[in-house]
Write a structure and sequence with these properties.
The chain folds into 2 domains: 252 residues, no CATH class; 91 residues, no CATH class. The chain has 8 helices and 18 strands. Bound molecules: S-adenosylmethionine. S-adenosylmethionine binds next to helix 3.
């Protein structure tokens, strides 16, 4: 192998290794509480998700009856370094099958034995012994693009997971291709990808509720975290903190209908235009002027406040490239970071 290909392979391996961080139950609960009604009678699929380690699995299995789910499907991936090894997210020592074989678990019944509505789910083995529930090795490697996983995807109504960030474009493209509802975690910056941006612009994808803050993810012990402030170890378990991790969804949210309150008046000196474009720069979403009806470049955090009745998204740009609306964000030679190009909707002009 020449050194170029070797480097490429190493890069790929490093990137894949970086995909190994695991979502905490509290983060899942915080987001999922907003969508309860939309899950009734639905088949939920958590792919890219080792059922023996996943808090997504734990959340949906524990809340199976409360949400009124029809079925829960979870599949793992042989490429994950925790397959067959104990990361011990769910404290189920000894239960996890050994070896690199990925698994699928299908749940259709979660008995509430003492009928108090509460289900204690530390014991997946107990759950799997119930009629109607299945745990079986997958035939292939559990890749979300494999035929086997696509068949499970077709059977499902809503996909909920934290997919590999390195494959985010392909992952979302597949959900759209199969016309699925979804609620997934991703890096906020993914909205600057051409394919993802187009979905946002076309109102086929938007942000969920719990965005912007810092989230802590459990990582395997050998996960390299060079920045001390982004690392913590609690009871021997290693966590990585990540900012800018958002929920991406096409499930209905109430926040999409909230109008962003604008209070600032447009004063030309406060909102300079980009050097070669008739577009004004706005440095903070809260400063969007209420009485300006031309095109504005706003920070990408705007998407979290976007109400399609109030604004129109025209494009996205930085100082070197643009998508859909020709504009580069340079003011008097100074380069401005990513900006979403927006304009207030006509019907709001009279307000
Ligand atoms: C960010 S982690 C999240 C794991 C889990 N969903 C969670 O949130 O706790 C993404 C997972 O996707 C797995 N993965 C990577 N490439 C994959 C692929 N092509 N198909 C399926 N899973 C994949 C990784 O091994 C990793 O375990």
């Amino acid at each position: 192998m020449d050194s170029k290909s070797l480097n490429r392979n190493l890069n790929k391996a490093n990137k894949a290794k970086k995909d190994e961080f695991y979502t905490q139950l509290t983060d899942i609960e915080k987001e999922l509480r907003h969508y309860k009604k939309q899950f009734k009678g639905k088949v939920v699929y958590c792919n890219c998700d080792d059922p023996y380690e996943s808090n997504f699995f734990k959340y949906f299995a524990s809340n199976f009856n409360a949400l009124g789910l029809k079925k829960l499907i979870t599949t793992s991936y042989s490429g994950s370094p925790i397959t067959g090894k104990q990361l011990s997210l769910l404290e189920m020592e000894g239960l996890k099958p050994e070896g690199k074989q990925p698994f699928k678990i299908e749940i259709t019944k979660v008995p509430d034995e003492n009928t108090d509505g509460a289900i204690n789910l530390t014991d997946v083995e107990w759950l799997l012994k119930r009629d109607g529930n299945v745990s079986a090795p997958l035939k292939a490697n559990g890749d979300f693009r494999s035929k086997e996983c696509i068949e499970l995807l077709k059977e499902s109504d809503i996909v909920v997971t934290n997919p590999p960030f390195s494959l985010f474009r392909d992952y979302v493209a597949q959900l759209i291709e199969y016309n699925k509802k979804f609620l997934i975690l991703g890096d906020q910056n993914a909205i600057t990808y051409k394919e993802i941006f187009k979905l946002i612009k076309d109102n086929k994808l938007w942000f969920g509720y719990d965005n912007g803050g810092i989230k802590w993810f459990q990582v395997p012990k050998d996960y390299d975290i060079p920045t001390e402030s982004r690392k913590k170890i609690v009871d021997g378990v290693k966590y990585l903190s990540m900012g800018r991790i958002n929920w991406f969804t096409n499930l209905d949210t109430t926040k999409r209908y909230h109008e962003l309150t604008l209070y600032k008046k447009f004063i030309p000196e406060e909102f300079p235009k980009y050097d070669n474009y008739n577009v004004v720069n706005v440095d903070r979403v809260s400063d969007i002027p209420m009485d300006y009806y031309g095109v504005m470049g706003v920070p990408i955090t705007f998407v979290d406040k976007y109400n399609p009745e109030q604004f129109e998204i025209l494009g996205i740009a930085n100082s070197a490239r643009w998508i859909d609306f020709k504009c580069l964000t340079i003011i008097k030679g100074k380069r401005i970071y990513n900006r979403v190009l927006i304009k207030q909707k006509y019907e709001n002009r009279t307000k």
